[in-house]
Design goal:
Elements: H1 2-19, E1 32-36, E2 42-45, E3 51-54, E4 81-83, H2 89-92, H3 95-102, E5 105-109, H4 110-120, E6 132-133, E7 138-141, E8 146-152, E9 159-160, E10 171-172, E11 178-184, E12 189-192, H5 202-209, E13 213-217, H6 226-236, E14 240-244, H7 257-265, E15 269-270, E16 278-282, E17 285-286
Pfam family, one: Lactamase_B_2
Keywords: Hydrolase, Signal
Family: Belongs to the UPF0173 family.
């Protein structure tokens, strides 16, 4: 009887944590996980259990874990690295709070990292020459399990200055905008476009890195319009294309269906994820 009560107690405790949105500690299982939280915010869990966040505006209005009375960071207990493509508020997002909570190291361009430490309070000890980089360079993180390449993006990268006085500019230099190619050992190679416009040299990303998965901005207005975003998927030669950076604001593309149809005509799998959902890869192949 006591054993049964103990089992039931453990079950209901686990259920309570799940309902509260608490994320358990990730265990290495040889699978790469990719979760989309809406807008441009993703989480990657590597086969060895390292946790990477991309452009973590987690409290964006598309994320079901966020809302008037909910903080999307409340259920997060692990992050090893935070990668930021450029300085706009919807990409810097909740990175500082997430870093302070988890100790995650910052991967971004040197100027943006420096200004985030100075103006936003990102812990300076959680960045350095091992993680700050620039376009054309590559670094190895996660004990060598992940190689990160920063690639060009045609966009802008101003960062908001919360300390700006009435006669000072609201925006400061955020370095050059970029995209990331993440080469995961025993996992897929993932290309995050950032907010770039389409540019013909995307074919060089294909030739150099041969990405398996593309996280492609399709929202228009501030980034690629859907038809050009479909051309981007073709140019980089991904096997699986996932749309991002749409639907969050009224001025953005609300439905990526037209983009997905155009991508399908190029014989590329298009996957429209729901915010808060996760897909898995075994090696470079999607299994779930």
């Amino acid at each position: 009887m006591r054993r049964m009560l103990a089992i039931l107690s453990g079950f209901f405790a686990s259920l309570a944590l799940t309902l509260a949105g608490t994320v358990p500690t990730f265990a290495a299982d040889g699978v790469t996980q990719l979760t989309w939280f809406g807008h441009a915010a993703f989480r990657i869990v590597t086969p060895k259990g390292k946790v990477l966040y991309l452009d973590p505006w987690l409290n964006n209005p598309m994320n079901p874990a966020a809302g008037k009375d909910k903080d999307a960071l409340a259920g997060i207990d692990k992050a090893d690295y935070i990668l930021i493509t450029h300085g706009h508020f919807d990409h810097v997002g909740d990175s500082v709070a997430l870093a302070k909570k988890t100790g995650a190291r910052l991967v971004t361009n040197f100027e943006l990292g420096s200004n985030m430490a100075k103006l936003l309070g990102y812990p300076k000890e959680q960045m350095g020459f091992d993680t700050l980089m620039n376009i054309g360079g590559e670094i190895r993180i996660a004990d060598g399990e992940v190689t990160v390449a920063m690639v060009p993006a045609i966009h802008s990268s101003g960062m908001q200055d919360p300390h700006a006085g009435p006669n000072a500019p609201d925006m400061v230099y955020g370095g050059n905008p970029g995209g990331f190619v993440l080469m995961i050992k025993d996992g897929p190679t993932i290309y995050d476009t950032g907010d770039t416009a389409y540019f013909s040299d995307m074919k060089l990303i294909r030739e150099q890195y041969h990405p398996d998965v593309g996280l492609i901005n399709v929202g228009g207005h501030f980034g690629m319009e859907p038809d050009m975003a479909a051309q981007a998927a073709r140019a980089v030669g991904v096997k699986l294309a996932i749309p991002q950076h749409y639907g969050t604001f009224p001025i953005l593309t609300q439905n990526p269906g037209g983009w997905a149809k155009a991508v399908g005509k190029a014989h590329i799998d298009a996957l429209v994820m729901k915010p808060g959902t996760t897909i898995e890869f075994k090696g470079a192949r999607r299994v779930k």
